[in-house]
Amino acid sequence: MRNDARALSGIELALYMRRKTLRDWALVAAICVAVGLWSAWGTNFNLLALIEGLPHIYNLGGRMLPPDLEIIQNLGGPMIETLQMALLGTTIPIFFAIPLALFCATNTRRSHTLGNILRILLNSLRTVPELLWAMLLVSAVGLGPFPGTLALILHTTGGMGKFFYELVEGVDPGVIEAMEATGAGRFKVFWFGIIPTILPNLMSVALLYWDYNNRAATILGLVGAGGIGLTLTHAIQDFQYREAVTCLIGIVLILTVIDRISAAVRSRVI
Amino acid sequence: MDKASALSERATNTQTPMIHVSGLTKVYGKDIQAISDISLTIHKGEFTVLFGPSGVGKSTLLRCLNYLVEPTSGVVAIDGQTLGDASTKELLSIRSHVGMIFQEFNLVNRMSVIGNVMCGHLHGLVAWRALTYSFTREDQELAIRCLRRAGLHDEGLYFRRADTLSGGQKQRTAIARMLMQEPKVLLADEPIASLDVKMQHTIMELVSDLAKKDDITVVMSLHHLELAKQYASRIIGLAGGRVAFDGLPEELTDDVINRVFELVDGQVVGEADEE
Predict the structure, then answer these.
(1) Are A101 and A173 members of one domain?
(2) Which ipTM was obtained for this model?
(3) What pLDDT is stored for residue A2 in this prediction?
């Protein structure tokens, strides 16, 4: 193949490459269409069903409006609980994720074995969605915001740990070397050479997870793990759609505010 | 022969051996031989410059001297203490008296200048102080003395972040960090390669002054041979991972330089032929 290409020259080569690119694009497009069709078939994706369902959607919309503003006074408590869950679910993992990063990152870990075991642990924590953790923990420690917070902590530790050790691995080896050369031990090198270097990135990741956990905390009520989600779930279960809409509006408003706050903090940190 | 006797004569004239290396070999991976069978004794107060083509193992040799790179075989001793026999704790303690400066300065960019300098005393910092980033009053005072000794007199700079400094100021900060260790030995890896010509002289002058007045034994890799001749008391040429020249600056003639640089090619060809 390469010899063929080499035998061609100038304009011929250009034309050959162009034909080749077109053929490649056609191939990629065909694969995309095939995968799309396969997935649509597997999920019963059907636009007709959607159109047939339109009257029902209209009907549902009617039952949702206007929002029931009377329950607003009952929303404050669960809403604050949701925010508190997210705060603990974000701050506590930071204290786990930093030491875990020290033991996992290839440039700071003491033992390969321990590092790999901890990576598998982090991976498992992260792979199980927080909703699933919450279901498991509710059966372990009972209903309420506590299992919800634990669920957030587990999932976030997994994700944050991975982000953190990748940041550690990205640190300039020269800085680490300079710290080691002063006779500083492993922890001091990490604490003085690495942490200050990646601090803005650490904060950025923590803010990202705070953002994420505020969203995640709203849904945990679905399995009885506290927060505004519980109120929402009850409303839907009781067919009180007007109350449910009020909950949703509250959630959207609060998340928007949080978004703004975290964006403002982020722009200061970086 | 004459040269060897001249060197040994000088060795007896100068005081005690500070760095002793014998049979030092470092192999990276399976078969990349960075340095092979290097034996050297460097005496207290000597200013030794390592030169040779890039990739010849100067950096590796320097890093073997404080075990940042663990040699594959051979012995390294600093001031009578053998690094290979030392426990981790002892090794850190030996290292705490071996300063090191680098081509790229290797400061913690987001830390203040004085913070960077105080890092030179991390070895002696107790755990709770390390955890809370609180150095002692004595450390702060020593850091200021070190900064002044390194030629940074403008106190307005001390609390600036390290990445706001110029190249020369950065290297001075790195030198102050090294001084904070109260070192017996300074390992310098191309310390002036990232600086402008004027600053190169300034920094060489400073290091030379430290070597003389503060009694620091210097081992420096350097590719500016004119500067090497001007400041060094001993010059070692490396070729193919071995010592190809070891003598006084006066003995470093163009012939010798050419021989050191050609030897690499010669050896590589020779080895390839043998295999």
Answers:
(1) yes
(2) 0.86
(3) 52
Using a CB–CB cutoff of 8 Å, tell me whether A174 touches chain B: yes
Looking at the 3D structure of chain A, how many domains does it have? 2
CB contact under 8 A, A181 and B99: yes
Q: How confident is the model at residue B147 (pLDDT cuts 50, 70, 90)?
A: very high
Nearest chain A residue to B123 by CA distance is A184
Look at A177 and B99 and tell me if their CB atoms are within 8 Å. Answer: no
User: B109 CB near a chain A CB, below 8 Å?
Assistant: yes
Kindly state whether residue B197 falls inside one of the protein's structural domains. Answer: no
Specify the pLDDT at position B274: 34
Of A41, A64, A87, the residue that ends a domain is A64
Establish if B133 touches chain A: CB-CB under 8 angstroms: yes
DSSP tag of A191: I
Residues A124 and A230 occupy one common structural domain? yes
**Chain A interface test: which of B122, B123, B187 (most A C-beta within 10 Å):** B122
Comparing A11-25, A73-87, A146-160, B8-22, which segment has the lowest mean pLDDT?
A: B8-22
Range of the domain at B45: 1-96+219-275
Give the least confident one: A48-52, A124-128, A133-137, B212-216: A48-52
* Banded pLDDT at B271 (limits 50, 70, 90): very low
Instruction: Print the domain residue range for A20.
Output: 2-64
Whether A56 and A80 map to the same domain: the answer is no
Q: How many domains does chain B have?
A: 1
Among A64, A85, A116, which residue terminates a domain?
Answer: A64
**Contact check, Cβ <8 Å, B122/A196:** no
